[in-house]
Design a protein that fits this description.
This protein is mainly alpha-helical. It has two domains: 1-109, Alpha Horseshoe (Serine Threonine Protein Phosphatase 5, Tetratricopeptide repeat); 115-247, no CATH class. Helix content is 69%, strand content 0%. It has helices at 2-10, 15-27, 31-47, 67-85, 89-102, 112-121, 125-139, 145-157, 161-174, 179-185, 192-195, 198-201, 209-222, 231-247. Helix 5 runs antiparallel to helix 6 (112-121). The radius of gyration is 21 Å and the shape is elongated.
Length: 248
């Protein structure tokens, strides 16, 4: 740490040193300074932009595999997380779009895993559903647990309850490993039929570790979304319908 601070004292706008020191400050719970260092790094990077490079147009591309480009990706990503932690969800969503626009095909930082959370938190339901439908043929987003559940929530919030029922039941059948950790995280008391069902109880034992990790990441990030008063009864009723279909 002292060596990094020494570099910054000599070169106040050394981008990589600023990002490294930001990580150290975050680990020591000095979040304000960590965010300020990331902002300083972004300012330095923005000053170095070519006149033809405009992030607002959405047509600029950067190859993450080139070392020179990674600092911008990392600084934008860290800034997105910091402003998201301040409940500035719409702003975080816009930064999510910005990072994705730099390499929409490769998505090197996997911001697609955060896209649904910020979209739902900022109540951009129609935009999120449009993106999900547009990308489904090429990216198979419905094969990701967070997208499967988030699309159902978006439909429910827009009032399309019947379609939301279908989508949620499909998500529960495809990714049953989400349910038990989600109810535990939300402190929801479910009836014995749900907790004793092998379909949900043993789901994570019969699936790949990578899928389990994706499910746990979704629960850890998005469980607040399910604490709304309307969503818990809706989830429980659809769980029972899924169990009826399995038992039939």
């Amino acid at each position: 740490p002292d060596f990094i601070v020494g570099i910054i004292n000599t070169h106040p706008y050394h981008v990589d040193a600023l990002l490294q020191l930001s990580d150290l400050c975050r680990l020591s719970d000095d979040l304000a300074l960590a965010a300020e260092l990331v902002q300083r790094a972004l300012y330095c990077l923005e000053c170095a932009f070519h006149p033809s490079f405009s992030v607002t147009l959405g047509n600029c591309r950067l190859d993450y595999r080139l070392q020179q480009n990674r600092s911008l990706y990392i600084a934008l990503f860290k800034h997105m997380l910091f402003i998201g932690s301040r409940a500035c969800y719409r702003t975080a969503l816009e930064f999510c779009k910005l990072i994705l626009s730099l390499d929409p095909e490769g998505d090197p930082l996997a911001v697609v895993l955060a896209l649904d959370f910020y979209a739902l938190r900022s109540q951009e339901y129609e935009w999120f559903l449009r993106i999900a439908n547009d990308w489904e043929p090429t990216r198979n987003l419905s094969q990701l647990p967070h997208f499967a559940y988030s699309v159902a929530i978006a439909q429910f919030q827009l009032g399309d309850v019947e379609q939301a029922h279908i989508l949620l039941q499909k998500a529960l059948i495809m990714f049953p490993g989400v349910l038990i950790p989600l109810t535990e995280k939300c402190n929801v008391q479910t009836d014995s039929r749900i907790t004793s069902s092998p379909f949900f109880k043993n789901a994570q034992l019969t699936q790949s570790k990578s899928l389990t990790q994706l499910e746990l990441l979704y629960v850890a990030r998005s469980y607040h979304l399910w604490k709304e008063s309307e969503l818990v009864p809706w989830l429980e009723s659809n769980v029972h319908q899924v169990l009826d279909r399995i038992d039939a």
